[in-house]
Design a protein that fits this description.
2 domains; about 80 residues; mainly alpha; 4 helices
């Protein structure tokens, strides 16, 4: 895969190599992708996004919330 960097992104990658954080531009790009993934795509972050989306759907009426009796239906008698 070839990536053409320009402007600010090119400056950042060159700076990472120049300062010794990475041995090459390819390594600098890999490091940036991993950092992004850890910050924005971690399991905790994804779970929190999903929970926020579910809360919003419940508040707007797009999703219905059931109590224990409704969820269990005919088996709710075993809950008590």
């Amino acid at each position: 895969m070839n990536v053409i960097l320009r402007g600010k992104t090119k400056q950042i990658v060159e700076s990472l190599v120049k300062e010794g954080y990475a041995n090459s531009q390819s390594e600098a790009v890999r490091m940036a992708i991993l950092d992004f993934g850890e910050k924005h795509l971690s399991e905790v972050e994804l779970v929190n996004r999903k929970l926020d989306r579910l809360d919003k759907e419940i508040k707007t009426g797009k999703r219905k919330l059931l109590n224990a009796d409704q969820a269990l239906g005919k088996y709710s008698k075993y809950l008590k």
